[in-house]
Amino acid sequence: MNGPDAARLKTIPNARPHLHTVVEHVLHLPELCPVSRNPAPGSTLTLRYVAGERLLELFSLDSYVDALVGHPVVRDMEFFVQTVAQDAANAAGVEVTATAQVRLNGLRQEQRVLVVAKPEDRETGPR
């Protein structure tokens, strides 16, 4: 399932695709749920991939995450990380590893969620 705002996730051309380049985006997560007020400040989501022909565009990545604040379908952190990982893999056209380090309000715990997503072929599903 693609996120509802997957079209917002844009890419830019990789100027030197022949160079082995590992990219990590570390996003500082906003409060996504207005009820639980989670994730708590200090929570992050890291997207890691070996660059191919395209790179994830920074500004659209911020806008994409902002569009999921208070979302009626993408409600739990596991589904959130899965959705972002899959949409990022589809956009960049390469395997993406998403790792969330989630601080939680009202609980004596943190949560780590790791998802590996491969680009989906729109007609046949995951490659």
CATH fold naming: GTP Cyclohydrolase I, domain 2
Taking the sheet with the most strands, its summary is: 4 strands, antiparallel
From the structure provided, what is the oligomeric state, counting identical versus distinct chains? single chain
Task: Point out poorly predicted stretches.
Answer: none
Q: How many H/I helices?
A: 2
Helix content: 10-25%
Compressed to H and E, one letter per element, the order equals: EEEEHHEEEE
**Large-scale geometry:** elongated
What would you give as the CATH superfamily?
GTP cyclohydrolase I, C-terminal domain/NADPH-dependent 7-cyano-7-deazaguanine reductase, N-terminal domain
CATH class: Alpha Beta
What does this molecule look like?
The protein has 127 residues and is an alpha+beta fold. It has one domain (6-119): GTP cyclohydrolase I, C-terminal domain/NADPH-dependent 7-cyano-7-deazaguanine reductase, N-terminal domain (GTP Cyclohydrolase I, domain 2, 2-Layer Sandwich), CATH 3.30.1130. The protein is built from two helices and eight strands. The chain has a four-stranded antiparallel beta sheet, with helices on one face. It has a two-stranded antiparallel ribbon with strand order 1-4. A hairpin with a 3-residue loop joins β7 and β8 (125-126). The mean pLDDT is 89.
